[in-house]
Amino acid sequence: MGIVLDRPVDMHLHLRQGEMLKDVIPWSSRQFAGGVVMPNLTPPVDSGEKVDKYREEIEEALNGEAFKPLMTLFMRNYTYRELKEWRSKIFSIKLYPAGITTNSEAGVKKLEEIYPVLEIMEELKIPLSVHGETNGFVMEREREFAPIYLKLAKDFPNLPIIMEHISTIELVDLLEKAPNLYATITLHHLLFTLDDVVGGKLNPHFFCKPILKTPKDREALQNVVKSGHPKVMFGSDSAPHPLGGKLRGSAGVFSAPVILPLLTLFFRGDVATFQKFVSSNARENFKLNLPTKKVKIVEEQWQVPYIVGEVIPLLAGKILPFRIKNSK
Length: 328
Ligand code: NCD
Ligand code: ZN
What we know:
The protein is of the alpha/beta class. It has 12 helices and 11 strands. It has one domain (about 5-325): Alpha-Beta Barrel (TIM Barrel).
């Protein structure tokens, strides 16, 4: 008994480096056949050499587990020659507006500055991943970015643009407004709201960018995910920070340990839609080549660890009714 998923893939993942990488990666590699690895290290991953070095570090930390790291480059003014050479090493290029989230100080200040790069990406068929927030009021940052997404999609009609970790009803609606706009949705934006961050006791482990939104926004996310929308893909944005950093205000939810057990609860036996959301949609949209891997989830009580290395996971210490078979 249980659910078996074919090649689940996490389309937005922070793995960090060093000891933290070693601590957190088993939680992703046990549940997924691959993941899109974010480039916001210090310094950012912004060359083919840095991609190679980071991928090697990840592969070493994987310890033989079948998991394909889909690497990304941090947006800067790349030349045609660079991108042509590095095309085969990367899945996408990640655009962070400058200063908008963790380690994004080197991000883009004016979108027009990167139009030449976007032209090259369009030609070389390199998808653009976007952290779509302005520097406005925290609850409105993503909604305010909607016209920018639309303009990008219209100016570069052959460029696949992934709206990362969408959290508002307005961005769900954008999916119908341009064929080249795709979206990833996280576990925490799908299941929780701002109430979980500040509605009772302040909970820093739910604090992330974009901030969790209203019940109405969450409902729109839930509906589009349940509809099996082909352009909607799972991307956890699992973003570990050491406890000390969290208490100093770092944004990021470390959700990796609980992803498939909680999504199993969310889909309530609709395995076909579950499979689309966590795998087939992404594989079809982006022709991903992932290792053969089946992941089994069984109905068996499991306690979320209180701490993983120095990181407190989402729902630490809670008892969940489902677990990954063979998981620790
Ligand atoms: C991410 C991180 O910690 O790297 N934080 C977050 O709140 N999501 C960065 C990001 O994806 O915005
Ligand atoms: Zn992220």
